C-alpha cells in the first residue's frame, strides 16, 4: 500500500521511473547506500515482458547485487550455449560459453520475465526503496541538477536526481525529443512472440542451449524458460512483414507454418491462439545523461535482441548511474563530470555489442562465425563478447582478434575464405499447418480484409505495447508510432 501524502519525504534523493530490471537495480543500489529512493512503475507486478534469455556476465552483476543465491530458487532453465540452425535443419552449428577466450561465467539461465522482474523489484523494496506500482509518470516538470519534478496520477513528486528506466517508453528521451530511431535497413524488424508448452526438447534445447533458427527474412528464437514452457519468437524484416496478408497477432503462426525446424519441434506443443508483437525498437536517446537525469537500460538505447544483451546493458548502466548519483549526493563529483563519465561508460560497453549485432546481419559474418573454430582463436574472442565480457572494455586479446575477425568478414565478401552458407527462405516455402489443434486454429483463421501484418504490427497488440508514455501536450509524438529520425 502507498503511504499517505503527508508521510512522504519532502524531497527524494532519487526518483526512478520504471520498475523493470534496470530501474530495480538502480533503486536497490541507492537504497542500500541509505538514499531515499522512490520507484514509479505504471503497471502492477508481476507483469508480462519479452526478453527471457540472459548472458553469463549477468551472473556477475546478480552476484554483486547479492541476488544470485535467491534467484536459484526461482523457476528457470540453465543456458550454457547457443544452437544456430538453418530453418530447414540442413545446416547448423553451436557455441558454448565455456569456449570464451577470457575468464568469466560459463553459464547463465533463461527465466520468465514476470518472475525475474518481480523478484528484482521486491529486492529493491526490501532494501528500503519505496515502490509505487500502478503509478504512471505523466509528465516531466523539471530537470535540473539537484531539482527534478515529475507529475503522476497520484500527484507531483520532487527529487534531487532522476533515473529514467522506462524501457521502450523512453519517457525522458521523448520529453527532450532526443529519441531517434536507427535507420539501418538491417535493423528495421518486427518481433512476434509467445509462450509454448511442451515443445520438443529432445535436441539442443535439452542440452541447456537456446536455439536460433536462421532464415533469409529474419530468425526465430526458442528459449526454454522453465521445465515445461518455451518462449518462441520470430524477428522478421519489416519490409517482408508488410507484404504478408496476415494480422500481426498471427504472424508467428505464419512463420512456423513455413519453417520445417520450428514446425517439427512444436508439433505437440500447446500455445495461445495469438502472438504478441513489437516494432520500432532500435533507437538511441543520446546524450545518456544531462541536467538532473541519467538514462538506464532501454530508456537510453536499444538496438536488437539477437544476442540477449538488453538486460545486461540495463544492469550495468543502472550500477554505474547509481554510483555516480551517490557521489553527486556526497558532492564528491560535479554534475558535468558525472554525466560525462556515465555517458562514456555506456558508450564503451554498448559499442562492442552494437558492432557485433550489425555484423551479424551481414550473411558473410555468419559464413565465418558458424564455420567452427577459425585461426588465431578469433571465434573464441567473439564468444567472449557474446558472454558479455565488454565492461569496462574487452581485454586487448579480445579486441585485436575482433578487429581481425571483422577484417575477415569484409574479405569474405569478395574472396570466400570459407564456403558461403546456404540460405533458407520462408517466403519460398509452401506452408504446412502444425499438427496441434491450437496450431491448426492459427493456420486457418482468415485475416480481417485489408489488414496487413506490417501495419498491424505498428499499431501494436493489446497484450503488449512498447510505448505508452503520455507526454505533456507540448511534446508531439504518437505512442504506437514513435518519431523516426536519422542517426
Ligand atoms: C523482441 C525482443 C526480445 C528480447 N529478448 C531479450 C533477451 O532474450 N534477453 C535480454 O537480455 N534482453 C532481451 N530483450 C531486451 C530486454 O527486453 C530489455 O533490454 C530489458 O527489458 C530492458 O530493461 P529495462 O529495465 O530498461 O526496461 P523494461 O524491462 O522495459 O522496464 C521498463 C518499465 O518501465 C515501466 N514504464 C514505462 N513507462 C512508464 C511510465 N510512463 N511511468 C511509469 N513506469 C513506466 C514499464 O511498465 C516497465 O515495467 C529483448 C527485446 C526485444 C524487443
Automatic annotation (TrEMBL):
Short name of any one Pfam family annotated for the protein: FAD_binding_3
Native species: Algisphaera agarilytica
According to the UniProt entry, its GO molecular function terms are: FAD binding
For bias type Polar residues, the affected ranges are 432-442
Compositional bias annotation for Low complexity? 470-480
Which residues belong to any copy of the FAD-binding domain?
A: 13-331
Q: Name it.
A: Flavin-dependent dehydrogenase
Kindly give the InterPro entries that the UniProt entry links to this protein. Answer: FAD-bd, FAD/NAD-bd_sf, Flavin-dep_Halogenase_NPB
Query: Which portions of the sequence form the region Disordered?
Result: 428-487
